[in-house]
Amino acid sequence: MNFTVRVPATTANLGPGFDCLGLALDLWNEAEFCFEGEGICVEIHGEGAEALSKKPDNLILTAFFRLLHQLGAPKPRGVRLRVQNHVPVGSGLGSSASAVVAGLLAARAWSGRDIPAERLLDVAVSLEGHADNASAALFGGLTVSVNTPQGWLVERFEPAPMQMVVVLPQFSLSTRSARLALPALLEHGDAVFNLGRTALVVEALRRGDLELLGRVMDDRLHQPYRLPLIPGAQDALRAAKEAGAAAVALSGAGPSLIAFPYQDPEPVAHSMQTAFQKQGVPARAFYLHSTPLGAQILG
Questions:
Q1: Binding positions
Q2: Which residues are annotated as a binding site for ATP?
Q3: How confident is the model at residue 55, as a pLDDT?
Q4: Using one digit for the tens of pLDDT, what is the confidence trace for 73-125?
Q5: Contacts of 196 (CB under 8 A, 6+ apart)
Q6: pLDDT given for residue 178 in this prediction
Q7: Which H or E element spans position 297?
Q8: Which sequence ranges form a coiled-coil region, renumbered to this chain (predicted)?
Q9: pLDDT tops 80 at residue 137
Q10: In 3D, which of 64, 66, 140 has the Cα closest to residue 109?
């Protein structure tokens, strides 16, 4: 049995939707599984090829074997894993969620069992720690994830086709470090500020309403504490709006910023890159669109 799992990049939070909102993007990682021979062989190409583990503790394989263990399903004697990464590692574009979801879909396919995506999400959260990126990677489109006493609840919305630009500075900021920067307590007014805006961000993305998105993609729960950690990020956010972006936000925990331009994305990207470069930080630009597609098995 051989097959390839294809998983999209994702952006989370989207301003006020901290740990709740996720959006799938048309940038893809692919993991080709070949079940033959004995032992484990991992080959990685593209983004993170030098840094990512090629041993059994590779995150894709960790998720793969975690689900098989929970199912009590037999493990393959041999696994040949070939990974082609287009999603930058540690970028705020859901690279780890992509790896986890790839492993879970592969385990479901190998086991031959009809496992609902909701259960896959539970396993993904146990590995990721949060559901926003993983839910968008699994279901595609725009997702809202909420943890309830009965388990994770995900509502999927069909986003309007939208172009965006993601600018990734050459700066390392782990999700753990970004979370440690957050305060333990929040002001009541800040919570209220985010609540209404989160609902309107969903509606703006669903309708493709850039004017509305620009009015509501603000945050008081995480961005004020995370942006100062990234050299040039605050200047880049302001520069993007001045260059024609309707809205700008940290992508996930950062360090990348995602901007939604009214028209031509290149001036927006250039202005953001320039702002980072003034702080001595090179930055790459990715020109992307939202996608309704989630993770899938190819052949």
A1: 88-98
A2: 88-98
A3: 94
A4: 999 999 999 999 999 999 999 999 999 999 999 999 999 999 999 999 999 99
A5: 216
A6: 85
A7: strand 296-298
A8: none
A9: yes
A10: 64
> Residue 153 forms beta bridges with which residues?
146
Strand, helix or coil at 110? helix
Angle at 97 between CA 96 and CA 102, to 5 degrees: 100
pLDDT tens sequence across 27-67: 999 999 999 889 999 999 999 999 999 999 999 999 999 99
Q: How confident is the model at residue 177 (pLDDT cuts 50, 70, 90)?
A: confident
Residue with tokens 């790839």: 102
Joined tokens for residue 190: 């800040």
Amino acid at 4: T
Distance, in Å, from the CA atom of 131 to the CA atom of 143, rounded to the nearest integer, reads 10
* Assigned token pair, 102: 């790839």
Phi/psi for 54 (5° steps) reads -110, 20
Q: Which domains does the chain have, with CATH numbers?
A: 2-158+293-298 (3.30.230.10), 163-289 (3.30.70.890)
**What is the rounded distance in angstroms from the CA atom of residue 35 to the CA atom of residue 39?**
10
